[in-house]
Amino acid sequence: MPLLTLEHIRRIFKEDSQEVIALKDISLTVKQGDYVAIMGESGAGKTTLLNIIATLDKASSGIIKLDDQDLNELTEQKAAKFRREQLGFVFQNFNLLNTFNNQDNIFLPLVLARKTPQEMKQRLMPLAKQLEITNILARYPYEISGGQRQRIAAARALITQPRLLLADEPTGALDSHNAASLLRLFDQVNEQGQTILMVTHSAVSASYSKRTLFIKDGVIYHELIRGDQSKRDYLTKITETLTALASEEVQ
Length: 251
Ligand SMILES: Nc1ncnc2c1ncn2[C@@H]1O[C@H](COP(=O)(O)OP(=O)(O)OP(=O)(O)O)[C@@H](O)[C@H]1O
What we know:
Elements: E1 4-15, E2 18-30, E3 35-39, H1 46-53, E4 61-66, E5 69-70, H2 76-86, E6 87-91, H3 102-112, H4 117-131, H5 146-158, E7 164-168, H6 176-191, E8 195-199, H7 203-206, E9 211-216, E10 219-225, H8 231-250
Parallel strand pairs: 3-8, 3-9, 6-7, 7-8
Antiparallel strand pairs: 1-2, 1-4, 4-5, 9-10
The protein binds adenosine-5'-triphosphate.
Family: Belongs to the ABC transporter superfamily.
Domain ABC transporter: 4-242
Pfam family, one: ABC_tran
């Protein structure tokens, strides 16, 4: 059974008397252990799609399920619990709290889930080692670099052992060195079984994924599967698809 199923998802925003069709008809399935990149030009509907999967927004019509849970039917309170327990988020701008030190930022979702301090420490230790953040846990977010901040944010997303990791432009604020380091980390956790769905404008970032979906005008326009290709060949295909998408725009 797929982890995530979307069937004919449609999202229409009503503004005054105007209707904006952000998502026209999106169907997709994501299996446990998959790593999916979502690309598309500005306004294509990527954020809308991510928000619906994240239960931050509701589809106008269509079916969306994670495991057997119908996400359209969650009340706001249940959706908040669902987000806390089943999802991990990594954003472009890190979203860390400057009034908490890094360790407390990472612990936040576990505090909300009422885990014991002992369990929090037990979960953090191996994760901190893997993310190479052990020596910066006592510092505050404003005392570390952007790349380190994103690793703290990744630790906060992963510490709940989420069913699905959602990343929105996770490398957007990072230089190429730090971006590569975060993407290698995503690779590692994906190899360990973590399912990842990442929205990105970066072809290089997408080339780390197993599948890339291209969204245009609210539909999935094309899909590339990495398969046995090298990262370089996959990257070339992603870039070519983006060029084809953009040139259609010009015609
Ligand atoms: N709350 C809203 N009210 C009205 N229209 C909206 C709303 N949110 C998004 N839209 C419209 O829906 C369409 C899709 O927007 P969305 O933000 O999903 O695109 P995107 O692919 O994420 O773009 P970007 O790459 O620039 O972030 C756009 O035309 C946008 O203007």
